[in-house]
Amino acid sequence: MSATDIHTGAVPPRRDLGELRVIPVRHRARTIGTAFAAVLLIAILYSVLGNPRWGWPVFAEWFLSEPVLTGLGRTLLLTALGAFFGFTLGTVLALARVSSSPLLAALAWGFIWLFRSIPLIVLLLILNNLGYLYQTVSLGVPFTEISFFSYNTTQLMTPFLAAVLGLTLNLGAFSAEVIRGGILSVDQGQHEAAAALGLPKGHQARRIVLPQAMRSIVPTAFNEIIGLAKGTSMVYVLALPELFYTVQIIYRRNLEVIPLLMVATVWYLIILSVLSIIQYHIERHYARGALRTLPPNAFRVFFARLGLVSLYSPARPVSVAAETPAPVIRARSHGSDWANSLPGGGTVEIRGVTKAYGDLVVLEDVDLVIPSGSVTAIIGPSGSGKSTLLRSINHLERVDRGYIAIDRELIGYRREGDTLYELKEREVLERRTDVGMVFQNFNLFPHLTVLQNITEAPIKVRGLSRGDAERLALDLLARVGLADKAYAYPRQLSGGQQQRVAIARTLALKPKVLLFDEPTSALDPELVGEVLDVIKELAQSGITLIIVTHEIGFAREVADRIVFMEQGRVVETGSPEQVLNDPQHRRTADFIAKVL
Ligand SMILES: Nc1ncnc2c1ncn2[C@@H]1O[C@H](COP(=O)(O)OP(=O)(O)OP(=O)(O)O)[C@@H](O)[C@H]1O
Fold first, then answer.
1. Do β-strands 561-566 and 569-574 pair in parallel, antiparallel, or remain unpaired?
2. Among 46, 234, 258, 379, which residue's beta carbon has the most beta carbons within 10 A?
3. Is 366 in the pocket of ligand 1 (CB under 6 A)?
4. Residue 437 · residue 544 · CB < 8 Å
5. What residues are paired with 574 via a beta bridge?
6. Which domains does the chain have, with CATH numbers?
7. For the whole prediction, is pTM greater than 0.95?
């Protein structure tokens, strides 16, 4: 660019820029490192291929020979069976470890402790000698003559069965801890959201918790499987001719030790490479929703290395929409099927509710009746027990004294005279579906698309067909202004959009009562309005709304009644004008003066 250009501010013609040559910065250390790597590689290749003692002709003779391939087949079969049964056992043990039954958890812990302590080789030898300890293996009713079957242990426990059993027990114990680590890594909010939607425990584990846990399970699990594939060589102690034992037999006869060890090594390298590719794809599968953009698949990485394509496809969002064409969404707003089929609001009765965490009394003798179809805002200082009260309404928290009923039906209990019997999990889940809950942190399921988030509970809990559930979900998404986001994953949405999806998800169960736990406090100020607008519209729908909020202006605008809580007690209730403009208690007045 000339000096005149600078003074006049004229932009140089485009072709001038095109003619400029770009010289990338030189990294001297990187160049030396690359040269060193190249020399090292050449030296290794020269030493391996140039030294006749490696015996490559013998390697070539045996690499695809029948006994080696038979041994390889056995290694692969042992790996597959050990991995399948080992991880199945590991999953059961991990679920037992995190279960609320102390005995079950202790039993699982004992199993893991024992089988992680015993070296695999010792375990295999014990199993191989089981016939010495127990002559027969039988199944029957203890202390009676009844027997369903009985086998001779020595005949039953073949070397192959002992190998599969030993590898299964060993991998089961190690993988249980890997799986438990994965389960613990899933946010508590995910469990709560699933429970609040009334999803049964088994379904929660299968559809919500385990798929998310897989992200941290898969890398370590593959380490275990690779260890297992190599660990199968340990079954030589059972004289079972898998890959390693087969080459041992061959080199003892022809004394070509190194070439035959190379045969085994190269096959193990191939197994490991295949497992690594499988691992990459499984990790990629479970990354759906966890990342805003999926990592490229292995083929793309390969072709990108060759410079044939770019590593990432241009601006292609991770959404099913990219793979499945989205159906035409017919937005039906007011007067839709959904709105017409609402069950109407429920009356919430909270009677003498008291709850403590250890010595800390969080709720003390709370008495409230919230009429059907009303909008109640609960306000109060931090730690006053607002969220705990809300969570007690749908039995996410168990109260110590008193009871909570919706339309005269207790949520977590059955009443007989003066006694309350706690309901079974299934019954609690059924009743809970009348009470929807929207959380502060949205708690959407990140591995499911927006549509799947909404349809999960209606299909599982309400028994809707997939088609009906999807129609309902699309209708609700249109109502909250997100019809075009049905096939996106939650992480691809803004906070405000995520919260609107969470509201739609809750509405899909057609609850009588809707609980909002500070629905806007995790949002940036400019996103608060869009969520509040949706809640304002819901206030007209006839559903009973109970909102814990710090948005006093919003509470004034939308609520019929305000409840002020402090130190676990209801201090004052009344219309917004009364509580906010003319509070009866000094503590209410102090709080309002501080927040307004
Ligand atoms: N699981 C728990 N274990 C022990 N203490 C708890 C537990 N959950 C809540 N608490 C305590 O109970 C009290 C009430 O908590 P809660 O979350 O209901 O208050 P809050 O009024 O909703 O507060 P905030 O407005 O800050 O959310 C707090 O002192 C809190 O530390």
1. antiparallel
2. 379
3. no
4. no
5. 562
6. 60-305 (1.10.3720.10), 342-595 (3.40.50.300)
7. no
